[in-house]
């Protein structure tokens, strides 16, 4: 079998990086982000990046690290509210930003991975998001409705965080840390994955695999996950 | 006039047994506290979860388990997880019965604006445009007037839209305005205690049938 | 909770059927077909059906049963080679047939369930399948390529076979009997599901659920599954 | 001239270590018997499986586990299952390295016809159109001539097409014809034992470079 295992993030990215490249980065907020690969991108110093990610991290963590070093030229995101450095660079005109509705972003990534160059959606019709896009009417159960054309997205490299992998690159995600990761795994020309645990071949029930190994080119086990929580909300135990 | 909790409780009366519901960030989150007895609803979180449970007990937070507001939450015996793409396929495909959202402005044609103010830093629309376009019924929970006193239920939105003609019901601290179908005019359904029609009209810009 | 459980196929279909309706039926070949629901459709006698299914069963089993009784007016399928009665009715002009490439059929069903009225694909460009369809050029990594527009499919009722369900309608499929079932579950105005086993709420690991309960309106446990094999292929044990 | 097994073995030489491969029904299935030593390939079955194993031992057939030819098969330690939609997303998205298919006709511009004969009952294209449109490399394994002696590698297909300009290599019992890229002309790569260029040309209609 072609070996997919690498010792660490640096080794897993070796030879893949170039200035001006497009990178998809999994995660929702700070949940399920590829911590180790983002840090390795920072250390590699690659620049003028276009980064496709639902959010932009926070100051000093996640994609915030690549903003601090000015490695990102453009973000394609749905929500970037959690990052002061982002706001500063954007308002200073140092950073380009393309907002996509979250579901449109997710579907564009799926489409890119599935060989679908364009699809129609009702999301954003009549808003700024629809400006300059092709409009088309389709007959539906409730009459004719107008939809807009959205295009598929692909990346030079997708960086993905999963929970567990086997040596074939089969992946399993955990709870809501799944989010954008499985789709991004399909839409990278090369997909590099970090996991918390590598299990022996044959460990997974083949009905439970979320991402089949065909989508994973490189793989390593990350250590000491920080997994920061953005909004720690708790309830009190009822008095006994 | 209703308090915020009473407003949320009024919105909760719109929940029907078996509904799948998506609650927006802020006041809509409070609705979960007022789900009527005997009504079973399943909460969807658009980051990839159906069957959202309450906040965890202190010390039991799981960084891999958050809602769309990035808050730590818990799972239930009905919970399922899925990707963001599958989550929005569920939303866009009309499988969610009801979404309760906040808004900066709603127009009397059902337009809603709740994501950007020109000239201010824009954080992004997140999943709001997908929700208003895809969910079967859209309820807006908002204050009746802005801080400057201007009406938030207007003849036309002045802010960039989140969705066009999508709102079915508005619940403010003064009243409930609703319409039976997209395209129909809004109608006054209920006044909060101590509010009469003239008071409501005086604080409203958009048209509604009394 | 709204009750989704019904005693049997007949009860689960009660009130949903009308002549001329469109039905999606899961399965690939005879693998993962909703045996009990197909038999109940036959018994119900509903007619002039448009049936969306990858295949058309075999003589006397699966959708073949609805062909025998002439309940099907039109099939939307990718391959119907296994059925003599189908061939007879088709050649006699008694049955309409719309062939879709298998992947296009699968994607059209997903699109219908996901609120996507149309998408572009390269499959079928330059063939009979493309005739009369909108063509559009998209820029790709390898230059400009031509794609055709395919539309989403929905059904009045989807009939689905899963392996296990819980009372909330969460479903798990088994091996290659998954096939078209999960997508069809999303594309029915009403989705009716038969399973081999009902498990108590909370039994499933929520990371392993294939179809979330939101897509399932009605559910019952089928008994005595026949699960016919079309091509029984085996190998010999090596002599010891 | 190659036997069917030799033809399949010749096709198997095109497999590279780590390839994900989809094998069509019929002669292409034989290729699995000739995978070279040291070359690890993963077989995809378009009904929703990656990592297809051999036929089961008698008595161990599982009706829930079949391949795209509806044959009973087994799983391996690498196997994963997925829906038909995900399976064809994998195919259409260009994630499968190689597909080996049969054909009734191939044209020297790469067109392929393998799904219908006008006037005969048509069984359907199944996944063939998706495979030829989506898979990175398409190899056709076919007899060099039809039963009536006519060449199957032609200047133009006479039957309705399965795909346009998609074939990269043709392996018949006489020769291997291939081209370095879609759009390039076919070239003679290899002759079967006992076949010379004139014999090949005499039995071929389509153009190829010698």
Sum this structure up briefly.
Chain A is α/β, with parallel strands linked by helices.
Mean pLDDT metric of chain A: 96
SSE order of chain A, one letter for each helix or strand: HEHEHEHEHEEEEEHEE
Helix count of chain A? Answer: 6
The helix/strand series of chain B, from N terminus to C terminus, equals: HEHEEEHEEEHEEEEEH
* Rg of chain A computed from alpha carbons, rounded to a whole number of angstroms: 19 Å
Number of domains of chain A: 2
β-strand percent of chain B reads 15-25%
CATH superfamily of the largest domain in chain A: Glutaconate Coenzyme A-transferase
Low-pLDDT residue spans of chain B = none
What's the quaternary structure here? heterotetramer
User: Which segments of chain A are poorly predicted (pLDDT under 50) over 5 or more consecutive residues?
Assistant: none
Provide a descriptive summary of the structure in words.
The complex is a heterotetramer, with 2 copies of chain A (240 residues) and 2 copies of chain B (210 residues). With 240 residues, chain A is α/β, with parallel strands linked by helices. Chain A has 2 domains: 9-117 and 152-221, Glutaconate Coenzyme A-transferase (3-Layer(aba) Sandwich); 119-151, no CATH class. Chain A is built from 6 helices and 11 strands. The mean pLDDT of chain A is 96. Chain B is built from 5 helices and 12 strands. Chain B has helices spanning 4-12, 27-30, 84-92, 128-134, 197-202, and strands spanning 20-23, 42-45, 49-52, 75-81, 98-101, 105-107, 112-113, 137-141, 153-154, 169-171, 175-178, 187-191. In chain B, the strands form 2 sheets. A 9-stranded mixed sheet of chain B has the order 4-3-2-1-5-8-10-11-12, sandwiched between helices. A 3-stranded mixed sheet of chain B has the order 7-6-9, with no helix packed on it. In chain B, a hairpin with a 4-residue loop joins strand 6 (105-107) and strand 7 (112-113). Chain B is globular and about 50 Å long. The two termini of chain B are 18 Å apart. The interface between A and B is large, with 57 and 54 residues.
């Amino acid at each position: 079998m072609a070996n997919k295992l690498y010792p660490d993030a640096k080794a897993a990215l070796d030879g893949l990086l170039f200035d001006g490249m497009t990178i998809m980065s999994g995660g929702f907020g700070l949940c399920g982000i590829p911590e180790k690969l983002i840090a390795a991108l920072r250390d590699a110093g690659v620049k003028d990046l276009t980064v496709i990610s639902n959010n932009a991290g926070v100051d000093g963590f996640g994609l915030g690290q690549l903003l601090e070093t000015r490695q990102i030229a453009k973000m394609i995101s749905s929500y970037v509210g959690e990052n002061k450095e982002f706001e500063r660079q954007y308002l200073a005109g140092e950073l380009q930003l393309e907002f996509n509705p979250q579901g449109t972003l997710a579907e564009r990534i799926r489409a890119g991975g599935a060989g679908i160059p364009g699809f129609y959606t009702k999301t954003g019709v009549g808003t700024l998001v629809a400006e300059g896009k092709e409009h088309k009417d389709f007959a539906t159960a409730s009459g004719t409705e107008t939809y807009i054309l959205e295009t598929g997205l692909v990346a030079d490299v997708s960086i993905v965080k999963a929970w567990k992998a086997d040596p074939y690159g089969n992946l399993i995600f955990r709870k809501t840390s799944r989010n954008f990761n499985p789709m991004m795994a399909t839409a990278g020309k090369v997909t590099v994955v970090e996991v918390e645990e590598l299990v022996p071949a044959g460990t997974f029930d083949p009905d439970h695999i979320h991402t089949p190994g065909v989508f994973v080119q490189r793989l390593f086990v990350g250590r000491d996950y920080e997994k920061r929580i953005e909004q720690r909300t708790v309830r009190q135990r009822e008095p006994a | 006039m209703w308090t915020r909790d009473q407003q949320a409780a009024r919105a909760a009366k719109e929940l029907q047994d078996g509904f799948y519901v998506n609650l927006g960030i802020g006041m809509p989150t409070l609705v979960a506290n007022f789900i009527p007895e005997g009504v079973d609803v399943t909460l969807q979180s658009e980051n990839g979860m159906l069957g959202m449970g309450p906040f965890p007990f202190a010390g039991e937070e799981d960084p891999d388990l958050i809602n769309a507001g990035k808050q730590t939450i818990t799972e239930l015996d009905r919970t399922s997880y899925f990707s963001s793409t599958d989550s929005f396929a569920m939303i866009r495909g009309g499988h969610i019965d009801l979404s309760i959202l906040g808004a900066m402005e709603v127009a009397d044609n059902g337009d809603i604006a709740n994501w950007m103010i020109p000239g201010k830093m824009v954080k992004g629309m997140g999943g709001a445009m997908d929700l208003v376009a895809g969910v079967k019924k859209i309820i807006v929970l908002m204050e009746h007037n802005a801080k400057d006193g201007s009406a938030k239920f207007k003849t036309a939105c002045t802010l960039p839209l989140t969705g066009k003609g999508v709102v079915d019901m508005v619940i403010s601290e003064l009243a409930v305005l609703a319409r039976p179908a997209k395209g129909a005019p809004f109608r006054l359904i209920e006044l909060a205690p101590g509010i009469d029609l003239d008071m409501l009209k005086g604080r409203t810009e958009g048209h509604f049938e009394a």
